[in-house]
Design a protein that fits this description.
234 residues; alpha+beta; 4-stranded mixed β-sheet; 10 helices; 50% helix; globular
Length: 234
């Protein structure tokens, strides 16, 4: 059984999609990051970095309970455990390369673009420009790579495509004000629509819908999501 620590944001969505694609038994454990639940000791024992997603595999290697945190690590772990949505052995270096590109580039720059365009105080034009342009650059790199390809790696659907789906789903927020977010990136649009049309994607979108996550962006939320913006308390 997989215990899946979840909040309805892009990185947990990737793991939800894999779990649904693979048909694994799992229990969703809500972590309301707007309330600061990610900072509680119980969750920090699962992910010391205080971020979602995280999982606990109650039947991990050698039958031991195993924690895994960070969406990319979770995708690799689950793919290796199940033997599903991995590339061929000869494509393994390419798979790892694109997973790291998504984990260290497209995802973080997309997240910062969203933050500085939608959440940060006005007047930070340099930061807005920096992260928006880098998000666009990463979009272009992947769009160019996908020219003439159906999938990011090899000839089949892999965890690289699953990983890309999580943040591409937020393209309208990453590229704020764009009339058609994928207008300049037709290959990304094709990839996203291909993944999004899978039945498992519809099921993944329903994960956590039975929990009332906090939606109000008040002072508590800001302190919970952006604690580094506030002085430490004694």
């Amino acid at each position: 059984m997989i215990r899946f620590y979840f909040h309805p944001t892009p990185n947990p969505a990737k793991v939800a999609l894999f779990l649904e694609e693979a048909g694994l038994a799992y229990e969703t454990i809500p972590v309301d990051t707007s309330k600061g639940e990610q900072h509680m000791p119980a969750f920090r024992s699962i992910n010391p970095n205080g971020k979602v997603p995280a999982i606990v595999d109650t039947d991990g290697p050698a039958g031991r309970e195993t924690r895994v945190f960070d969406s990319t690590a979770i995708l690799i772990y689950l793919a290796e455990q199940t033997g599903k949505f991995l590339s061929s052995p000869e494509d393994r270096p390419e798979l790892l390369s694109w997973l790291m590109f998504l984990a260290s580039g497209l995802g973080p720059f997309s997240g910062q673009a969203v933050h500085f365009q939608h959440a940060a105080p006005e007047g930070l034009d340099y930061a807005v420009n920096r992260y928006r342009r880098e998000a666009e650059r990463h979009y272009q790199v992947l769009n160019d790579h996908l020219d003439g390809r159906s999938f990011i790696v090899g000839d089949s659907y892999t965890i690289a495509d699953i990983s890309a789906w999580g943040w591409l789903d937020r393209a309208s927020r990453v590229l704020k004000g764009a009339e058609e977010p994928f207008g300049a990136y037709p290959n990304l649009k094709r990839l996203f629509e291909m993944v999004d049309a899978r039945p498992a994607a519809a099921r993944a979108r329903e994960v956590g819908k039975d929990h009332a996550f906090k939606r109000i962006n008040d002072e508590e939320t800001k302190r919970a999501l952006f604690p580094s913006n506030y002085p430490p308390t004694a």
